[in-house]
Design goal:
Layout lengths: L16 H8 L12 H9 L5 H6 L2 H5 L4 H17 L2
């Protein structure tokens, strides 16, 4: 029988969910304030889960109706979230 490793926000002390997110730059788009709930839902439905996904493929924002100045705000926020974690 294979044992399961339990991982929570702060459990275990090392290698927990918080550490995984911080160490790998995997900050979820759900933390972004420049996106509406519906936009986040649409992005998640397209497989965009973390901020780096938006930076790597900014055209996905057009597909969910984020254009112009709003698009620049989203990209700036995503980049700031990633940079602050370093």
């Amino acid at each position: 029988m294979r044992s399961l490793k339990l991982v929570g926000w702060n459990y275990p002390a090392k290698g927990n969910l918080h550490d995984i997110i911080e160490n790998n730059g995997l900050h979820p788009i759900t933390t972004m304030s420049s996106l509406s709930r519906d936009q986040k839902r649409d992005l998640i439905g397209r497989g965009v889960m973390v901020c780096i996904d938006i930076i790597g493929n900014p055209t996905v924002l057009d597909q969910v109706g984020v254009r112009g100045d709003a698009k620049e705000r989203v990209l700036t926020e995503a980049q700031m979230i990633i940079e602050q974690a370093k």
